[in-house]
Design brief:
Length: about 70
């Protein structure tokens, strides 16, 4: 898996994890599965940040998303 794909997947999983944690807290149940997905998302983002040759900035993330979507869509 290349660094750009790992970064995009990490961000997408992270956003869904935050929503899931909020939902669990509203329902007054422990967010166990959500905590595991946060760890997965963090691992993907750290992997992407350490293996990327050029690094990532906030301004480069939209371009990274577009490049990954164009790469995998037919």
């Amino acid at each position: 898996m290349d660094a750009d794909t790992a970064m995009v997947l990490g961000i997408i999983i992270g956003v869904f994890s935050i929503i899931s944690i909020y939902s669990a807290l509203v329902d007054r149940r422990p967010p166990r599965a959500s905590a595991l997905t946060v760890l997965l998302a963090t691992g993907l983002i750290v992997y992407a940040a350490t293996t990327s040759e050029v690094g990532y900035t906030a301004a480069s993330l939209p371009k990274t998303f577009v490049n990954v979507f164009v790469k995998y869509l037919p």
